[in-house]
Specification:
Aminopeptidase; 7-stranded mixed β-sheet; single chain; 4 helices; alpha+beta
């Protein structure tokens, strides 16, 4: 398998990232979500990462935001044909490391109910189900809330 590197996201990555975002956000509208990704990148450039192939192709990304010692994992997504190869793990570990360096004590992740198959992935890192929010992503689009207590 080709080597995958994790690096900070930049504006040139937004087109590829907005494609990937549809995997984590099945309810999202691509162009509108691209604006959201751009805003997150602007606000938290040190918490926005991409996974790239040796040829520079973006195959995954992660973004988070913080409020005091609490963080929210905004998104994590890996291109379908690259899933199951440890890329999500690399992205999440990089994000958690960045959050820890900012003094974050608790990390939340809101998972769209259609992406519930991702929950075992989060459990490997110590996340636990903390609840759910009805209509969080829009009417009929519920979120499963996961929480990680950082050491």
């Amino acid at each position: 398998m080709e080597e995958i590197k994790i690096r900070f996201m930049n504006q040139q990555d937004l087109e590829a990232v907005s494609e990937l975002a549809m995997l984590a956000n099945p309810h999202a509208e691509k162009e509108a979500y691209k604006k959201h990704l751009f805003e997150e990148l602007k606000e938290n450039p040190d918490l926005s990462f991409v996974a790239v192939t040796e040829k520079g192709k973006v195959v995954g990304y992660v973004q988070a935001e913080t409020r005091n010692s609490i963080a929210t994992l905004e998104d994590i997504a890996v291109k379908e044909e690259y899933q199951g190869k440890g890329i999500g793990k690399k992205l999440l570990l990089k994000e958690l490391e960045a959050l820890k360096s900012k003094g974050v004590k608790v990390v939340f992740a809101e998972v769209h109910f259609k992406c519930a198959r991702a929950i075992p992935f989060y459990y490997k890192f110590g996340f636990r189900i903390a609840g759910f929010m009805q209509d969080y992503f829009g009417i009929g689009h519920d979120a499963i809330v996961l929480k990680l207590q950082m050491e």
